[in-house]
Design brief:
The structure holds 2 protein chains of 2 kinds. Chain A is α/β, with parallel strands linked by helices. Chain A has 8 helices and 11 strands. By secondary structure, chain B is an alpha+beta fold. In chain B, strands 4-3-8-6-5 form a 5-stranded antiparallel β-sheet, with helices on one face. Classes of the chains: A alpha/beta, B alpha+beta. The interface between A and B is medium-sized, with 30 and 28 residues.
Chain lengths: 222, 480
């Protein structure tokens, strides 16, 4: 899942980004409001983590512009402003969640997960398809009762395909949601990742859960 | 506790009661005088009727012919009247039958003027007497005698008589008693009524105070924008309402400043705490993760140190600000050369100013001796120089002018400004105030100028900040 972190504190940007990446998210970050708005409008993010007191353009102005446009991203405000009126103002302007600094990283990750689920209209943190089960809260994948270890990128790919189950997901969409600004995806990186994922989750010689639609992309369906 | 209502009630009640008592007394005396006068007029009319009865005959004798219907009044009436006539020599001419053998006191005014006095009547009742000296009417000659012309009457010497007419004054006393009782009753009843009316009126008069009190009770920290209109308040309360509104304005401003302070403190402290917490959680979550290993433990600790230093700077400056504001800072004043201190303090910033391409101009006298605490004064100057160099745009101007005077030296430190507006100047000495609302810079917390202002106040230095023109920020220190 792809997250945009708009935060002016360099250290916070660095370590929150790191914490979110550790949780399996792809993270882009911006240090001021103008850059953040530009990134938010130029890319498809599942969740935007937004500070309020930002140089150049404040967080509430960004929120207003995003919500008045076509942006579908969920927005979580992460701010030192802790009064009820601050929180109410943020939520009334369209934020989906509000977290006050200082915060526990686990809580931030849990809330971001929650927003991702809401973004894809998933009610449960567990998705089962055929005999494959993925527990998003614990980031555990099992098939036929057997636990499968997945590297972060492949886990994110599987999770994204499951969120879009029944839909053909194009390579560019996968790239946009799985890879962040730090990654340098080459032309066949998605195909390579799908190949690797199939090897890990499919039984040898069996039918793959992930189907290829030539020229279109991939689909996962029961 | 004193109460306006109680004081007004008792004050008005006391004053009005005294006025009513005095008024009642004066009224009683006036009525008494009028009634006695009326009584005396009646007495005089009675006396004149008796005088009219006295007639001097041609032979010089005096006849007093009392009509039959009047006789009983002066005889056997239950409350009889009395009269007595005297000749000039004091011998009694006639007396009423009611007197028996008793005498009335003979008294009369001069020149036929009647005199009146109170007396005890022979039957023991209280009475009032009228004494008058008069000349009785002369009896006239018959017509036949006049026309016969046989003889001429000898000229008659008119007699001079004194008469005292007395009667009981029960009616007068009864009326006077009724008036006195009525007035006394009113005197007792009116204060009670006045007390009730005054209490009600004072209560009504003070009701605007009660309304204002209720309105004030409703003012909470989150409703300080409220202002009292005083639409229905009496004129006397308008100054109080105006002062209350001014007080609310000042409170609102103070609360707003407090809110800004809290919000800024929150940001200044929460952000480094968040950084520290997130850094620690990330490090603890995967201490051996390739990311952290590649980044290096050293980088991580450098960040921790940076955060600690940032927080230490904030806390140290806050403590210094608190000490200066409370006046806890001990002062060690001595004679110092302000020019030398300025040059020494500027030293570290001259290089930075050159690097930023700033043009610097100094107008300093050879020497300016002041008595001040050198360390504290240096801290103020350091802060002002630092702000001027850091906040001026690259290539901007820096000016330092010192004008010595007999009583004080005026130091002006100015720099080119391209961010501050006139509205910002009222906030510039507020703790944590920064022009940039994002407060992004970890090196500046907005405490410098607030601390400088507090220290300057401690040193009895007047500090002012002005925008000489929109592009030039001037800080002026008047140093005694």
């Amino acid at each position: 899942m792809r997250i945009l972190l708009i935060e002016d504190s360099e250290r916070l940007r660095k370590y929150v980004g790191k914490g979110l990446r550790q949780a399996g998210f792809s993270v882009d970050s911006a240090s001021d409001g103008e850059e953040g708005l530009w990134l938010a409008e130029s890319n498809l993010y599942d969740v935007i983590v937004l500070d309020l007191m930002l140089p150049k353009l404040d967080g509430l102005s960004i929120l207003k512009q995003l919500k008045s446009g076509t942006c579908q991203s969920q927005v979580l405000i992460l701010s030192a402003k802790d009064t009820v009126s601050d929180r109410v103002r943020g939520l009334k302007l369209g934020a989906d969640d509000y977290l006050v600094k200082p915060f526990a990283l686990d809580e931030l990750v849990a809330r971001v997960f929650c927003l991702v689920r809401r973004h894809y209209r998933m009610k449960s943190p567990t998705i089962t398809i055929s005999d494959l089960e993925i527990d998003m809260a614990r980031r555990r994948v099992t098939r036929n009762g057997r636990s499968i270890e997945l590297p972060p990128r492949e886990y994110a790919l599987l999770e994204y395909l499951l969120f879009r189950r029944g839909e053909v997901v194009s390579r560019s969409e996968i790239e946009e949601h799985i890879y962040d600004e730090r990654a340098e995806p080459c032309s066949n990186v998605v195909d390579a990742a799908v190949y690797s994922l199939r090897k890990r989750i499919d039984p040898p010689g069996g039918r793959s859960l992930i189907q290829t639609r030539r020229g279109l992309g991939y689909i996962i369906d029961s | 506790m004193s109460s306006i209502r109680r004081r007004l009630t008792w004050g008005l009640l006391g004053t009005l009661s005294i006025l009513i008592l005095l008024g009642g007394f004066v009224l009683f005396l006036t009525l008494r005088k009028v009634l006695i006068h009326e009584f005396d007029l009646t007495q005089l009319a009675g006396a004149e009727a008796l005088i009219a009865l006295a007639e001097q005959e041609l032979d010089g004798t005096i006849e007093l012919d009392l009509p039959a219907d009047s006789r009983s009044r002066f005889a056997d009436h239950p409350e009889p009247e009395y009269f007595q006539f005297w000749f000039r020599d004091g011998s009694t001419l006639a007396r009423s039958q009611s007197l028996g053998q008793a005498d009335l006191t003979r008294r009369a005014g001069a020149d036929g003027e009647p005199v009146m006095w109170d007396l005890e009547l022979p039957d023991g009742r209280r009475g009032r007497a009228l004494g008058i000296e008069f000349t009785p009417t002369l009896a006239t000659q018959d017509e036949d005698d006049e026309t016969s012309g046989d003889s001429l009457a000898l000229p008659l010497r008119p007699a001079r008589l004194t008469m005292v007419y007395a009667r009981g004054r029960e009616t007068l006393d009864r009326v006077l008693r009724t008036v006195a009782v009525s007035l006394a009753g009113l005197g007792l009843l009116l204060p009670v009524c006045i007390a009730l009316v005054v209490r009600a009126l004072v209560g009504r008069g003070l009701s605007p105070l009660k309304q204002i009190s209720e309105e004030i009770r409703g003012v909470e920290p989150d409703s300080l924008t409220h202002r009292f209109t005083g639409d229905r308040a009496p004129e006397e309360m308008l100054p109080i309402i105006t002062r209350l509104n001014e007080l609310l304005g000042r409170l609102e401003e103070a609360f707003e400043r407090e809110r800004r302070f809290s919000s800024n403190v929150a940001h200044e402290l929460r952000t480094p705490i968040s950084e520290l917490r997130t850094l620690s959680e990330v490090a603890l979550r995967s201490p051996n993760s390739p990311g952290l290993a590649a980044e290096g433990t050293r980088n991580c600790f450098e960040d921790v140190l940076g955060i600690a230093l940032q927080m230490e700077r904030i806390v140290t400056t806050l403590l210094a600000l608190g000490r200066a504001q409370r006046g806890d800072q001990s002062l060690h004043p001595e004679e110092i050369d302000l020019v030398a201190l300025l040059e020494r303090t500027w030293q570290p910033y001259s290089r930075m100013a050159r690097q930023r391409g700033m043009s610097c101009r100094f107008e300093l006298p050879d020497q300016a001796i002041v008595s001040s605490d050198p360390a504290l004064l240096a801290s103020v100057l350091t802060n002002l120089f630092s702000n001027a160099v850091i906040h001026a745009p690259p290539g901007g101007k820096f000016l330092c002018l010192l004008r010595p005077g007999p009583n004080h030296n005026v130091l002006t430190i100015a720099n080119t400004n391209d961010t501050l507006r006139q509205d910002d100047l009222v906030h510039i000495f507020e703790p944590f105030w920064q022009k940039d609302p994002s407060r992004s810079s970890p090196d500046h917390s907005g405490l410098g100028l607030a601390t400088s202002a507090a220290v300057a106040k401690l040193l009895a230095i007047e500090i002012r900040v002005t925008l000489a023109d929109p592009n030039l920020l001037e800080v002026t220190l008047t140093i005694p």
